[in-house]
Amino acid sequence: MPKTVAVIFGSRSAEHDISIVTAINAVIKPLKALPGFDPLPVYIDKKGRWFTGERYGEIDTYTSGRIDTFVNSDKPVQLHFENGLVFKSGLFGSSKKADVVFPATHGTFGEDGSLMGLLRMANVPFVGCGMTASVLSMDKVLSRLVCAQAGIAQNKFKWFYANEFTSDQDNLLNKLKDLKYPLFVKPAHLGSSIAISRVKNISELKNAIEVAAHYDDKVLVEEEVENLIELTLPIMGHPDSPKPALLEKPLADPEKFFDFDTKYLQGGKKGGEKGGGTKGAQGYSEIPARVDKKIEEQAIKLGTDVYRALGCSGTARIDMLVDSKAGKVYFNEVNPLPGSLYAHNWRKAGVSNAELVEKLIEYALETHQQEQKLATTFDTSFLKQF
Amino acid sequence: MRHFKNYIHRSSHRYNRSVVYMLQRSEYDIAKFWEWYRRIDDWGKVMYRGRIVYTPVAKVLTLAFSLTQVGLYLLAGLIVWRFAPQSVGEILLSLAFLIFALLSIPLIGAALFTGLIWLGKVLQKPLIATKLLRAQQIYHNHPGTVVAVAGSYGKTTMKNILGHVVGSTKDTAVTSGNLNTPIALARFAHQLDGNEEVVIIEFGEYEPGDIESFCTLVEPDIGLITGINEAHLEKFGDIKTTTENIFSIEQFVDEEKLYVNVDDERVAVRAPERTQRYSKEGSSKWRVSKINVSLEGTDFKLKHGKNNFDVSLKLLGRHHVGVALAALMVANELGIDIQKAIEQLATADPVEHRLEKRLLPGGGVIIDDTYNGNPDGIRAGLEFFAEIEAKKKIYVTPGLVEVGEKSKELHEEIGARIALAYPEEVYLVKNSVTSHIKAGLKSEDFSGKVHEIENPREFYENLDTLLADGDVALLQNDWPDEYA
Questions:
Q1: Which residues contact A59 (CB under 8 A, 6 or more apart)?
Q2: ipTM of this complex > 0.90?
Q3: Chain B closest CA to A128's CA: distance in Å?
């Protein structure tokens, strides 16, 4: 009997469309090639309504624009939590129980831990980082604070709530005074480089904070790393046994760092057309990154240390900043569900997309099995006193 | 429930498309069509592996069949209306008739429709005979050298390579694709302008006596026999009949101008002594040595008289050495400079879907051999697969159709050969021969993973996701819906 794998994607997120590509190309396609799995596409539209059905797993549905007709005519799916997670579509529609769930959502209402919380409640095995790791990873401030506690090297940063900027701008800017320009201003929770700015002076800083505060309630400001090389490392496995893929170097001009437009809309071509690279989910990049052996070792150690410290599982991608002259590697951020699973990198590392998906499902089942062994209740006489 | 579903399917527009698809796949052979029709137990899965190709004929037939169906439904309604039932008994009788009509019209429609096609074909026969006569005249009067390529397998590759080598020097016409039926050759005759220096023609084998008919039609000057095996054995009955059918070419071509592939044991045994015998080792006047096979192509050294040559092919597999040699021998016979012919050989591409290499953007290689539907082709492909190196090897096949009574034996042999190519994973498109291939794998203690594919279209569409950088997948043969 094939395992039903519910692939959940879309959702109320700025990265809704990227999630569709991840789900269909990197998860559903390999599941269709793998015997023993039956993919169940579960699409969450931008209004947060859930739909299921074969046509939601076809890329043409979205590229042709037919998706709007489908979501307006189809009845949203009902979720039932009895003995796992059951999707019921329509009044007389069939019910389908998920043996395992593959979250393929990026950003808010999905990758940020919300979906993982729901899946934990349903007690269904699910792929990828758990709720805690997702929450920590998707909050650039929290992940930096945890990593700082774990002694992981980072460039200098400060953080604040968006309200602090609106209520007392001068005081806040004063607190940021000891950071050295140029600076990067980032919303704490958004991925895919959305609303990230590089600023060179206070007036640009104010504007950048305003933009970031428009998207998020928490803002991170950090110093730029000199002689910058960006490196990224996809990792899979349980938190206590992380297995790295290959170090990857995005081929972009550091002056024009990878913003959303470069990564996705221009196919990653900005500053990276000189050749020698591979076009992956992030555009053109060099795999494996040609860096000094010492930097490579430092980067792999830092990546796996971060994975462990944040308790990532399944897969995650650790982004790092390297001062190439000083030979120092700094933690930048974590992506608990890399776009298209970073399958292009794993393929270079000798792991096919199908093997990756199969392995991630295997980890999910192992994690779930381990969790079932943990005691979740405790008998007390507490209620007897009332 | 399934029968009910089938009746529902037969009343849908999908049924009409399925019928036209089946006719197309059966090459409008009515007997073949009905044999398939009889075997169908799920009309929802008729177009499982392929899709109807909307040629002008297919478009007209789809419309005509739909109209036939509608006409029959209207007729049933009209009968009831004219009958004008009044009593309860009459009404019940009319209802029973309507239900009967509803259930049987799809079948009656198909019978009526195929009957009309059969009639059309009968009426067309004199026209075809006239066309063939005219074509015979064209070939007879043609001043060029006619080269005929015959065999159970390897014809299209041989024809294409030869055409590629000869075509660079001489005005050459080559039959396209695998259009090798009498009517296709008649049409080809009408396309010739009479100035061609060389005309290369592929002969198909469909029934005993057809090679003789082809030879009578085109009057070949040079013949090539590429190999003999069990392909289409169901039509020939036994291998001896197949052999004699192919060798009937010797009645029309001088023995010295008949090139035969003696890598094939059956050809080697049957071929007369004075024929031009070629193999991957060479021939009486040509010596082959130092064959090197890789994913990049095939290289070897060639000695002809006192001259030595380095031959490089893009074509994959050791068996292409004989093909290349035959092309050079014929080119030499036609007066083409050997070095020039060798240079031309190096640029020859494989025939589509015959050991055709496809590089995946993310790394990994797919060797597409899905048009390879004969035992020797499968053996040659597997021999190549065993020789190459890869991080991981994946093998995919549904097995072979139309191999007669020896199917079990042959598929067990294929299974054993797959095991000896040491793939890490084997994917078998599930059908009646799957168990035989698995038995063959077991006989060689195959230790890799074996998977059975239930939905081949979905599998093939997503196959690239199984490959990482450095992996190689070999896909051999396809299993058409008509054999499901």
A1: A20, A21, A24, A25
A2: no
A3: 19
